[in-house]
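Structure first, sequence second, as always.
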């Protein structure tokens, strides 16, 4: 069974992007930790909070690094699925939607890292998760189905999409 090269390439790009994000975040967390523990940031009065603020930042960055690490492991273990035109949408589906105005968008249904935007074959692909409103609306649907979902760009207004392809 051969995999769609676009999905295989997309999976590799997701992993590569998450690895790069993790490396940047680790460096930022090290810098924040160094600032939090630096001798110059020892408070000399109750209003000197630079060291405390830096420790909060270091903790938040460490938490985000843990989230990225979990996403990275989920994608490394991910097995891409094949989809035919009558197949029901599930994890690893690469979905093409068309809206009422004829605009299209491509979505990859992944286990983590929702909101990640990547380029594949000259098009933007948005990673969504089954927990997102659009991900929930798409699960179990197939080509030709209509889905309705609100989006941030429409200020809560419902938007209708037709599923035109599932790879």
């Amino acid at each position: 069974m051969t995999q769609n090269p676009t999905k295989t390439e997309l999976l590799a790009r997701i992993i590569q992007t998450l690895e790069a994000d993790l490396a940047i975040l680790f460096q930022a967390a090290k810098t924040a930790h160094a600032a939090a523990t630096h001798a110059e940031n020892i408070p000399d009065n109750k209003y000197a909070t630079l060291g405390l603020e830096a420790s909060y930042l270091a903790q938040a960055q460490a938490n985000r690094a843990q989230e990225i690490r979990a996403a990275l492991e989920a994608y490394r273990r991910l097995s891409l699925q094949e989809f035919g035109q009558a197949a029901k949408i599930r994890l690893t589906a690469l979905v093409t939607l068309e809206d009422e105005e004829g605009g299209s968008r491509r979505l990859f249904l992944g286990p983590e890292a929702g909101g990640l935007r990547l380029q594949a074959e000259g098009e933007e692909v948005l990673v969504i998760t089954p927990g997102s409103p659009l991900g929930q609306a798409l699960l179990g649907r197939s080509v030709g189905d209509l889905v309705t979902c609100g989006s941030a760009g429409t200020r809560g207004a419902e938007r209708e999409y037709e599923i035109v392809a599932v790879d």
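Margin note: Residues 5-77 form one domain.
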